[in-house]
Amino acid sequence: MPTDRFYPIGTPGQAWSEAERDQWRARQVRQRSYADDVLAAIDMLRSRFDVESYGELRYGNAHHVEERFPLMALRSRNWQRGLPSVLVTGGVHGYETSGVHGALRFLQAQAAGYASRVNLLVVPCVSPWGYERIQRWNFDAIDPNRAFRVDSAAQECAALMRLVAPLHGQFAAHIDLHETTDTDKTEYRPALAARDGKPFEPCSIPDGFYLVDDAENPQPAFQAALIEAVGRVTHIAPGGENNDIIGTPLVAPGVIEYAKKELGLCGSISGARYVTTTEVYPDSPRATPEQCIAAQVAAVCAALDFVLAI
Q1: Residues with a known catalytic role
Q2: Which CATH number fits domain 18-309: 3.40.50.720, 2.10.70.10, 1.10.510.10, 3.40.630.10?
Q3: Which of 51, 100, 179, 185 is most buried (CB neighbours < 10 A)?
């Protein structure tokens, strides 16, 4: 939709009611299969990892048939006290494809190289309903990556926090795999403004890979190591006219900072010292889908290598 026109659901200046949320749900079309793309790939890894269901999403109401999605995590088979532990999450925003498939590709192709050196907990697809609809929000029009809070209304977030809670503070690193897409500008931000009854504010989309560090716990050497590794796979996003990315000042090449806990971001849940959010740009004419997946894998491997070197 054009970004200079109001979103087709709701009334300008008024936040959505449940009626508008139902209109929005009716527009969300299932476009791919979580079972075929994700669960089948996880099944192929059962001989190498401990696979567990850490919950089940149940979404539906009087106007929409209930759907159920098992939430799956994979752990190192021989979890050893004394080894560094690393959390990898993908698909917090279900539409961010390379995050999901980057986590799976890492498990398939690279994780064996870190066996007996690192304890891994990997959640490839936090938001399966959003994955199937290629949608940022969940069924309730909640952005999961703003909802990692106590008593979260987002089922995906509450379930993931319960999974991680027993290990909180024991992780050395947490890598959360994301994308920034052109639909952030054309769909998500107009929808967000309409949902909240606020004016639409246009944004630019950076061309390239970048990272989001934690403003409350910045780790510049860690971020630099990941940027250096990913730069061998795909290009790093330059700063804009104001040396910024999506309105946030660069603190280093390809790195910005957000206050992760304050914003309710997934990167706040582990208590790890080294935390980052990856952001791949899949719509770039300079990057292929394969490069985007490879960039996510490179970031995870660089994070593990950094942890093992300290």
Answers
A1: 262
A2: 3.40.630.10
A3: 100
List phi, psi (to 5°) of 16.
-65, 145
Torsion angle defined by CA atoms of residues 138, 143, 148 and 149, in that order, rounded to the nearest 10 degrees: -100
Measured between alpha carbons, how far is 174 from 306 in angstroms, rounded to an integer?
Answer: 12
Domain definitions of the chain by residue range:
18-309
Enclosing H/E stretch for 139: none
The Cα 273–Cα 95 span in angstroms is 28
CB 108 within 8 A of CB 287: no
Question: Do the Cβ atoms of 116 and 307 come closer than 8 Å?
Answer: no
Burial 115-128 (b: 16+ CB within 10 A, else e): eeebbbbbbbbbbb
295: left (phi over 0), alpha (psi -120 to 50) or beta: alpha
Is 299 buried (19+), middle (13-18) or exposed (0-12) by CB count in 10 A? Answer: buried
The pTM of this model reads 0.97
